[in-house]
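re the bet — no i am not wrong, look at it urself. input seq straight from the record:
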Amino acid sequence: MSTIVEASVPAEQFALQETCRRLPDAVFEAVRVVTDGTDEVMPLVWGSGADRGTLTEALAEDPSVDGVSVCTQVHEASLFRLTWTTRVPVVTGLLVAGRGVILGARAQGGTWTFRLLFPRRDAVAAIVESCDRYGVDARIERIYPMTESSRAGQSDLTEQQLQTVEVALERGYYDVPRQTTLTELAEELDVSHQALSERLRRGHRRLVAATLGAHLDRESRP
């Protein structure tokens, strides 16, 4: 059964250490945008706790960031597109060593908390082993199954979309490099290449929308 893992890593070993030190009240929420044909890691980041100009300046001067641009602003939060230095994809690669996918991440008070999806619970051991090997102090905070009720409540995926995303995850479609292709997945699921591509696209969109929506809900509360 697919498993959700929540893990934390110190900002000094991952990203935005200087920004967190400079803006101690700031909160950053990164979204893993899963789209076909891209290897980008957490390109979209919500920032709050300071005005847009202050956040932009801090991010632009942070050693872990290669590039920053503002996408939009909603209430008191700003959405940034970031290009990270090489350390960031290295650490995220360690976190998803067991064929996982980053659903979201949050930085506050000098600590990043990640929400990861794995095809099996035993893949969690790969996180600990990989991070220990490279000196990354990853701490597993919580592990729980992605049950039907929790999946429906958190992402609003249809059963068909859930099955498709889970099979893609288990077969290594999200690995870098990929361990399977759309054509192979389509044959296994007995659907056309186009139908599978569309099903994955809609599933990815709902996963991302659920993560973004949770952030916007928090921002809109008085």
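see?? Residues 3-220 form one domain. told u. also The chain has one domain: 3-220. so pay up
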